[in-house]
Amino acid sequence: MSIGDYIRDSQIWKSIFRHPAPHDRRNRIVVVLTNFFLHLHPVSVKQQGIALSYTWCMGGVTFFLFLVETITGVLLMFYYRPTLEWAFNDILALRDVSTLGIMREIHRWGAHAMVIAVWLHMYRVFLTGSYKPPREFNWVVGVILLVLTLLLSFTGYLLPWDQLAVWAITVGSNMARATPFLGYEGPGAQLLNIGGYDLITSGSDARFLLLGSRFVGEATLNRFYILHCVAIPLVVALLIAIHFWRIRKDGGISQPL
Amino acid sequence: MAHPNLTSSVIFGLGWLYLILCLMNSFWAMAQLKKQKHFKVWDIFGGMEVPSATTWFAYSLFLGLVSFAHFSGSGSPDRFMLSLPEFFKDSVDSILADPRVYFALTVGGFALMIWLREWWTKPTVAWILLNMSILFLALSMTDWDFRQIVGKPDNVPIVGMLFLLGFFTWIYFSRAVDNDRRMAQGLPIRERENNESVLVWPDLVYPELICMIVLTVILVAWGIGLPAPLEEPANIAKTPNPSKAPWYFLGLQEMLVYYDPWLAGVVFPSVILGGLMALPYIDFNKSGNGYYTFNERSFAVSTFLFGFFPLWVALIVLGTFLRGPNWNFFGIYEFWDVHKLEALNNKNLSEIVWDDMLGVGRPVAEAGASFASQSVTILIRESVGLIFVFLYLAALPPLMAATGYFRKYYNRMGFIRFMVFTNLILLMAALPIKMLLRWVLNLKYIVAIPEWFFNI
Ligand code: HEM
């Protein structure tokens, strides 16, 4: 008896995988049905639907990058404190005291790659007309995922707390100041006043809500940190689950009718 | 020179790039040899049939020599000859360093991409285009200013994205052209051929595994090769010039040149996202679902690609690579000089109307006038622009429904859908229209009411 067979015959193995190795047709079906991770997939798919030149694998790449970002992000969190005193120095230490090696690099390049991959994924879904019925709603879920991917990247951009970070976020968030009605330099904001008191001021407008202060400061760092590490990832994870579930419910990868 | 165009490490690095290009072309030549491809020399040169592979092998050999020259010459950058000549760089910059030329080129390129799709998707043509773009990049890297901006760590992904976009756009158009031809001949499209069901294990999980491994390798190599940027610690008192948003928002930042923040930064992004979400509900065309085609959905694809290429990707490239200090436009080989001056003599429409055309000056409210009378004066002052904007957004859609090309759309879409659709199209067109007005009339704002932060 080979060592592989010995392991696969053991009670431990069998308690985890409730079937023999996927060498024959029956077990190849069973493996997909009984494995928690694999059962995201259907048992069988159309050959052209999974052809690389058809799907470009970009949805899968996006998902994989999301996982990479989660793992490297958790590791980075162990070494990073979101305060004015420490944020920059902790990043500096990540570079100079190589505790985590290239973890920060992988996290940053993975984030850029995820933005690019999500665009390419949307591009492919558009070009194959896969947003057409019955997949309209999943396209909408996708657009929300696209926004959240950009916001994830945007909130993370601030965390190193260097010149690149604060000024990029300053320029980006200055737009919120001009939100119609809700920004204090936006059209219509003057109309929102009660008895001569402005409701929308630089201390109460959309930008203040985003930054937690009148300029990019410690409150902003805290806010972006929580959005970046907790709030947005949770929503993204939920929406990805819905996205995948809907792919199955909508009849799998699109096919010519 | 303080800013050397050539350094040892640049020359050495380019040696690798040419070596990779040499290998790529050797494989390509091998493939041509296998396919026994021939091409005919022009008649004046004898008109004989030559195997394509010969040319490609010669080209690869040449690249190999170039690569070797880089490796052996990297020791003495001062005497190294292979770099872009100054007159070439100067002439490219003097022609290109202008948003008008840039925009014209991107729109022209977009039109050619669609119009010549049967030609440029041919493998040989596409391969030559790829070679040209890599050679352009390699040669440009010999310029200090070009390297400063393209080699910035956060900008490297954009260069990668451009190549990926080119590649995937090629895949799309070649498959679409192929399917369109098949349909014209009454043959089954490619997605219907060899389309048996296969089991997910192993036919899907193995490619997925391979894909994950390849990606991991790429990320690790990228992480080792390119350190993540870290600049000076944050300093609110020291504004960098230029200050740029993260690269994926630079298209929006570029729009700020033409529209105020409330439009460029809030309304237009919302419209883009709303429009994307609305897309499946306004595209009534049932065909082209689940396969690549251009002819069956030419309007939808062209519109989307226009929004994606000239109005999104090209503006990101512009904002990232070509906008320097004070958001001035710089050529790709031009030094980012903080003191570069650009004449700004833009005028508002109300100034053109009241001052230049009527010659009576813009109406001004009396000092101490009531809010209501001030408002009336402002509205009268900006009336021409307001009417234009109103006509554009409210009168054009019904007109489009009643006449012309879009009439058939109206009949199939119904009222609400058509109004959403036309307004989205008009808002998308609002950007190039404002660009043209700026360039032709020096127009600053169509409606200028700074009193209310309401400038269009
Ligand atoms: C975090 C972001 C996203 C992830 C992880 C993700 C993941 C996936 C995956 C794995 C698939 C399976 C097919 C494929 O790989 O192409 C898929 C399909 C799909 N995605 Fe996404 N996606 C994301 C964002 C988007 C966006 C931005 C859109 C569109 C705006 C979108 C629309 C769709 C649609 C309509 C399908 C079904 C396509 C078909 O049946 O051919 N998704 N997605």
- Specify Rg of chain B, calculated over alpha carbons: 27 Å
The biggest beta sheet of chain B reads:
2 strands, antiparallel
Number of helices of chain A: 11
Adjacency order of strands in the biggest sheet of chain A: 2-3
Number of strands of chain A: 3
Name the beta content range of chain A: under 5%
Contiguous low-pLDDT stretches of chain A (5 residues minimum) are none
Q: What's the SSE pattern of chain A?
A: HHHEHHHHHHEEHH
In CATH terms, what is the architecture of the largest domain in chain A? Up-down Bundle
Fold-level CATH name of the largest domain in chain A: Cytochrome Bc1 Complex, Chain C
Number of domains of chain A: 2
Helix content of chain B: 55-70%
Overall shape of chain A: globular
Q: Can you walk through the features of this model?
A:
The complex is a heterodimer of chains A (257) and B (456). Chain A is mostly helical and 257 residues long. Helices cover 60% and strands 3% of the residues of chain A. Chain A has helices at residues 3-9, 11-16, 25-34, 52-55, 58-77, 87-96, 103-127, 136-158, 163-174, 206-211, 218-249, and strands at 44-46, 193-194, 197-198. Chain A has a two-stranded antiparallel ribbon. In chain A, helix 5 (58-77) packs antiparallel against helix 7. Chain A is globular, with a radius of gyration of 24 Å. Chain B is mainly α. Chain B is globular, with a radius of gyration of 27 Å. The longest helix of chain B is centred in the middle third of the chain and has 29 residues, at 156-184. Classes of the chains: A mainly alpha (257), B mainly alpha (456). Chains A and B meet through helix 3, strand 1, helix 4, helix 5 and helix 6 of A and helix 8, strand 3, helix 9, helix 10 and helix 12 of B. Strand 1 of chain A pairs antiparallel with strand 3 (197-199) of chain B, so a sheet runs across the interface. Protoporphyrin IX containing FE binds at residues 55, 57-60, 62-63, 66, 118, 121-122, 125, 128, 130-131, 135, 138-139, 142-143, 145-146, 149, 240, 243, 247, 253-254 of chain A. Residues 55, 57-60, 62-63, 66, 118, 121-122, 125, 128, 130-131, 135, 138-139, 142-143, 145-146, 149, 240, 243, 247, 253-254 of chain A line the site of protoporphyrin IX containing FE (HEM).
